[in-house]
Request: fold
Amino acid sequence: MSHEGIRIVRSDQPQPEELPLPIEARTPAKVRVKKTEGTGVEIDWKDGHHSQWNFAWLRNACPCATCNDEREKSGRAPGEPKPKPQTLLMMYEAPPRPVEVTPVGNYALRFKWNDGHEAGIYSWEYLRRVCRCEACLAAAERKGDLR
Ligand SMILES: [Zn+2]
Ligand SMILES: [Zn+2]
Reply:
């Protein structure tokens, strides 16, 4: 019996990208950047979904190539803080907050952080995919995603 013509898709092969999100799911109806309060970002999406993130989480989820590489090498999920070396425990470090948030076209927000980093362009699509609401976290857990 020949197995020719049967292709077994192995899990170590590159997986197709996640399905594109419906347009309403990645179009914000309302965006609140609570820069003055220093709390975080809230988005009401056109499909009625609500997301919010604190600034520390967003800083650690910076989608720029450098931060992405760095996270991949250290095996951190977006938003997961870097482990701090023991010796730095006593040092004061200002909590991440944006000094400037600017819209990029109509598809993203660019954050300039108080540590000087400003390479990250947070697209609506990215933000929706990293939604931290209970329903999305539960769904991510079912899929085995780290968040
Ligand atoms: Zn970055
Ligand atoms: Zn959600």
The two ends are 46 Å apart (CA to CA). The mean pLDDT is 87. The first strand starts at residue 28 and ends at 33. Residues 65-74 form the longest helix (10 residues).
